[in-house]
Amino acid sequence: MTIQEGDLLWTPSPALVQTSQLARFMDWLREHRSLDFADYAALWQWSVDFVEDFWEALWQYFEIDSSAPYTSVLNERVMPGAVWFPGARVNFAKHMLRKGQRGRPAIHHRSEIRLPTTLNWEDLRDQVATLAEAMRRMGIRPGDRVVSTLPNTPEAVVALLATTAIGAVWSACSPDFGARSILERFQQIEPRLLFAVDGYRFGGKDYDRRGELAQLVEGLPTLEHLVFLPDLDPAAPRPTPRARLWSEVMSERALRHEDFHYEDVEFSHPLWILYSSGTTGLPKAITHSHGGMTLETHKVIAFHANQTPDSCLFFYTTTGWMMFNFMVMGLCQGGRIVLYDGNPLAPDVERLWQLAAEHRVTMFGASPTFVQMMMKAGVRPAQKYDLSALQSVLLGGAPASPETFEWFYREVKQDLWLTSQSGGTDVCSAFVGASPTLPVYAGEIQTRLLGVDAHALDDDGQPLIDSVGELVIRKPMPSMPLYFWGDTDHRRYRESYFDVYPGQWRHGDFFKVNRRGGCYIYGRSDSTLNRAGVRIGTAEIYRIVENVEGVQDSLVVNLDLPGGKFFMPMFVVAKPGHALDAAMQARITRALRTQGSPRHVPDRFYAIDAVPYTLTGKKLEVPVRKILLGAAPEKVASRDAMMNPAALQYFVDFKGEVARWLEGDGRLG
Predict the structure, then answer these.
(1) Residue 131: phi, psi to the nearest 5?
(2) Where do the AMP-dependent synthetase/ligase domain residues begin and end (predicted)?
(3) I need a labelling partner for 498 at 20 to 30 A (CA). Which of 280, 295, 477, 507 fits?
(4) Boundary of a domain, candidates 502, 524, 546
(5) 3-class secondary structure for 581-644?
(6) In terms of pLDDT, which residue wins out, 536 or 320?
(7) How many of the other CB atoms lie within 10 Å of CB of 66?
(8) Structural domain tally of the chain?
């Protein structure tokens, strides 16, 4: 079939609508609050008009466990600075672990290194209790920072939950990050404890990270404890004499979950720290709260992902992406999650579908880029695998095209709740996404999530319908960050979200809402690069590239092209006496892979004479990206405000190269 954007592809059955978690909540509102809503649109409108009533209803519906009563729901509707549920004392980990039933699986783990394993709920809870109590004996206290470079394994889940169970603050980078990138993040938050691994295997190739680990130990002067997991080589020696093996810590004094005491903390106590991409300097240390994420988790996992104790959630991720946190959040309804540590295309491109069939996954997570690879490889999952348990697909990481939707209904399953969502690290959740009670239209995100007052605004701050504007959240949400760690005067926080529309959150996406409430994301409106769902800051790339021998200056952009393709060219100014030859390109590529990650490597290199700058010394990344996508130069860049106006002409002439890339066999982003 050939479909167009907006074509109706799927309608939920009456049985699904009536038994959904969302319908149960609407029934509860009718019984306990005398609130009767005809449909999702009416429920959403109430949730954003009466934000205090909505979030208090969630508190009561999900029976949030607090050791002290709250004095109000929201002190004042202000952004930033909203104070939610003052007086309450909660614990995130307690709520993630309370619903799983003994004897039932909690985590299925598959890896390129280990044999398949399954962790039951009672084992997960006992391991969290054992590790949490061991951390207390190390002297880790509420508010202390605990960091990790563990891969996507059960140990990482246990470490996150144990850290938050005692009120310490969790933060993680995946082991494929270079030492410099990790230090730029962890040095900001001054951790006391590090969980680390000796290496990892990806696509059959082993990567020893003990050298990088030594740099971390050297570069983190506040570090007092190192817990070491020799995953790649079980016989690997301790990296430092004081390092303790994971196995030693876990066997020293086992503790039953029933004997463990969670540390209840203030609603606004820091839970974990995620990182922005570092576009305008060091990555921002985005700090979320125990209470905010506890409420947001229950809302999005129950109502918008429709997870139940019988559900099985699988989204391929690394521990450095917020989707790892989302997978942990997926435990809150007592179901199962699947973790995979390895190359999603190895030993063949069907690896994730094999896992989905093996574990009878009910919600499968994928990026549109992954689907493009499936399409290119001719993969047809429905013809090879038993996907009878599969109920829904969650698309995330980038805007999804109508062709992506079409592929799922043609090659995976016709009766499929296919959802696309957008939000991200900033709130560790979504602003727009799914509802099991709504139809699915090609290329369209189903709806704005409950409690999210999202609109497309024009330059004057007026809401738009059926026109593209800036994605703006007009009322506070509990899952908005508390602050950026170390940003004592909150200047970077305000500049990041509130400098364009004062008192309203500007997210940095181009956004459209149509008349039925369907949503479209058209990419970033700032200069952040989005590679396969991972946001990468240009400043982070420049810090690596411009230290490479022979490089004087550089500029990089990522282009979202039709058909779900991406093109990330890098433009390099060579120092006098050097040239952008194959040897220099190899040096740049090697530096980006080792100090950043494979996603930092551009698709192609181009030699230029000069990078265009503003008079204040900023690279014109956004104007260059818009020009390469077809915008008129005079519409996106003022030559009078440029330090070197002639430098822009190269990019005006470069547009033909983009067209050739699109028409050719360009590698997908």
Answers:
(1) -70, -40
(2) 102-477
(3) 295
(4) 524
(5) CHHHHHHHHHHHHHHCCHHHCCCEEEECCCCCEECCCCECHHHHHHHHCCCCHHHHCCHHHECC
(6) 320
(7) 17
(8) 3
Domain with residue 155: its CATH number is: 3.40.50.980
Tokens of 277: 């991409």
Residue 375 burial (CB count, 10 A): 17
Residues 502 and 370 in one domain: yes
User: At CA 354, angle to CA 350 and CA 360, rounded to 5?
Assistant: 145
Domain co-membership, 258 together with 276: no
Give residue 369's pLDDT. 72
Check which CATH number belongs to the domain holding 635 and give it.
Answer: 3.30.300.30
Q: Which of 81, 88, 106, 109 is nearest to 96 (CA)?
A: 106
Q: Give pLDDT tens digits for 256-295.
A: 999 999 999 999 999 999 998 654 457 899 999 999 999 9
Q: Are residues 514 and 567 in the same domain?
A: no
User: How much is the pLDDT for 665?
Assistant: 47
d(CA 487, CA 192): 20
| Averaged pLDDT for residues 171-197 | 94
Q: In this model, does residue 667 exceed pLDDT 70? A: no
Q: Is residue 174 domain-shared with residue 80, that is, in the same domain? A: no
Domain boundary among 263, 292, 324: 263
Mean pLDDT of the chain: 91
Give yes or no for a contact between 439 and 10, defined as CB atoms under 8 angstroms apart. Answer: yes
DSSP 27: H
| Residue 493 contacts residue 483 (beta carbons within 8 Å) | yes
The whole-number average pLDDT for the span 511-517 is 94
pLDDT of residue 663: 64
For residue 615, pLDDT beyond 70: no
Q: Give the range of the structural domain holding residue 541, as residue numbers without chain letter.
A: 537-663
Query: What integer is the mean pLDDT of 185-206?
Result: 96
Token pair in block for residue 459: 């330059």
Contact 79, 480 (CB under 8 A): yes
| 397 vs 420: CA distance, rounded Å | 9
Stretch 445-459: mean pLDDT, rounded?
Answer: 95
Same domain, 350 and 250: no
Tell me the angle at which helices 51-61 and 40-49 cross, rounded to the nearest 10 degrees: 110
SS3 125: helix
Pair 78, 128 in one domain: no
CATH number of the domain that residue 61 is part of: 3.40.50.12780
Q: Are 329 and 525 in contact (CB under 8 A)?
A: no
Measure the CA–CA gap between 619 and 361, rounded to whole angstroms: 45
Q: In this structure, is residue 100 part of a structural domain?
A: no
Same domain as 493, residue 564: no
Phi, psi of 650 (to 5 degrees): -55, -40
Please compute the mean of the pLDDT values over residues 19-35 and round it to a whole number.
Answer: 98
